[in-house]
Design goal:
The complex is a heterodimer of chains A (206) and B (193).
Chain A lengths: L2 H14 L8 H12 L3 H4 L6 H32 L9 H27 L8 H18 L6 H18 L9 H11 L2 H11 L6
Helix pairs in contact in A: 4-5, 4-9, 5-6, 5-9, 6-7, 7-8, 7-9
Chain B lengths: L2 H8 L7 H9 L3 H23 L2 H18 L9 H19 L7 H9 L9 H13 L2 H12 L4 H8 L3 H25 L1
The chains are: A mainly alpha (206), B mainly alpha (193).
Chain lengths: 206, 193
């Protein structure tokens, strides 16, 4: 077959190959308009990002810590009765657990504050200072001989990274760190891991 | 341009170019958005149908393309022509859908429907026309898209290249290769006639 004949065939194909039926363009537009220009809440299902999760985590921690304190008191009563059993925790382990609880809770609150205020909130100037304090605690826990759980260790190492980033947020003009912090939180799935750690804290073997 | 778009544009005293329509659409002006839609929807729908061969899917794809376009419009920087950007989205959305819905080529009802809408004019042998359609359908996706967009839909090689994310020269090479395969596929049939 020569090119001329093929051109004829393809010219015909422009009029015959998968020729679309008339499109109901007005109906399609109505759907486009409803979806693309609807108010955000109605148009899109909210996708929880680290900011939402940080909020939820901070809220659940307040409740969780309260419940934990109550149950720890109860457990301690039981420990006294069962003194000498393998379930009894050492003073060092109890101290480690308490510090870890406080660190995770404070970090969640800090991330929640960061997510709501960004670099423009009134309390922004305090965040690097808080992060520096939490960073010190994180490093102490990392160095503690009591902390043997590899999951907790990995979480603390990631917290160390993000807290160091927050600690470097010295001024509102140095916003370049914020996207990096967001990236770290998302890539390392940090907020869900904090939530999981808080939930599982009592189950950890330090 | 469709009448609705023409009315929308003519109602403005000054000549309204696409760039200002885009700016207005980004600002939430639905009439400007509708004018952009009217100017491009038919071609997007036609391309979606040529790619998918499925009437309902082509409508859904057209909808998805414009929803995405209007959501992403604030990010459009005008470095490429709007139509180029739009058609790149259209091709991407259509191909993604095609990959998800692999049954399309087997949907005889839709192919029948497509044939039902075929242009009745011309004196080409119906069998040959059917062979040609089958031969085009049998081409590898990259070759078929380049051929459909350039030879059947009339996009330039530069436009095909931008839409498919390939070089202009690659588009030319793909069309050349597609034509060679069609010649081979149809050659025997023509000799029989």
């Amino acid at each position: 077959m020569d090119d001329r004949k093929l051109d004829e065939l393809l010219s015909d194909a422009a009029r015959s190959y998968r020729v679309p039926p008339e499109a109901p363009l007005d109906a399609i537009w109505a759907r486009v308009e409803a979806e693309a220009f609807a108010p955000p809440a109605a148009a899109r299902r909210p996708v929880p990002d680290w900011r939402t999760l940080a909020f939820a985590l901070a809220a659940s921690l307040v409740l969780g810590v309260l419940i934990g304190r109550v149950s720890v008191r109860g457990a301690r009563g039981a420990d006294v009765a069962a003194a000498g059993t393998p379930l009894a925790v050492s003073a060092a382990e109890a101290s480690y657990q308490r510090e870890a609880e406080e660190l995770l809770g404070s970090t969640a609150l800090l991330l929640a504050a960061l997510s709501t205020q960004g670099s423009t909130g009134p309390a922004f100037a305090q965040l690097p200072e808080q992060a520096t304090r939490l960073l010190t605690t994180t490093r102490l826990l990392l160095d503690s001989p009591v902390g043997r759980n590899p999951r907790m260790k990995a979480l603390l190492q990631d917290l160390e990274l993000v807290l160091a980033q927050v600690a470097r947020l010295k001024s509102r003009r140095e916003n370049v760190e914020l996207p990096l912090i967001t990236q770290t939180l998302e890539e390392r799935d940090l907020v869900p891991r904090i939530r999981s750690a808080v939930t599982d804290l009592s189950a950890y073997d330090y | 341009m469709p009448r609705a778009a023409a009315i929308a544009i003519a109602s403005d005293d000054a000549a309204v170019d696409e760039r200002s329509l885009i700016a207005r659409a980004v600002a939430g002006d639905r009439r400007a958005a509708r004018a952009l839609y009217d100017a491009h929807a038919a071609r997007v729908h036609r391309l979606a149908y040529r790619i998918s061969g499925d009437a309902e899917l082509a409508q859904d794809l057209t909808q998805d393309v414009f929803v995405l376009v209007f959501r992403e419009l604030p990010k459009f920087r005008g470095e490429a022509a709007f139509s180029t950007w739009l058609h790149r989205i259209a091709v991407t959305v259509s191909l993604n859908a095609m990959r998800k819905v692999k049954r399309l080529r087997e949907r005889e009802t839709d192919l029948d429907e497509a044939r039902h809408h075929e242009h009745e004019g011309g004196d080409l042998d119906p069998d040959l026309r059917e062979r040609l359609a089958a031969a085009i359908d049998a081409l590898p996706e990259g070759l078929r898209l380049a051929l459909v967009m350039h030879t059947i839909e009339g996009y330039t090689h530069a436009e095909v290249g931008l839409a498919l994310g390939i070089a202009e020269g690659t588009s030319k090479a793909r069309v050349f290769e597609a034509r060679a395969r069609l010649r081979k596929a149809l050659g025997g049939f023509l000799e029989e006639m």
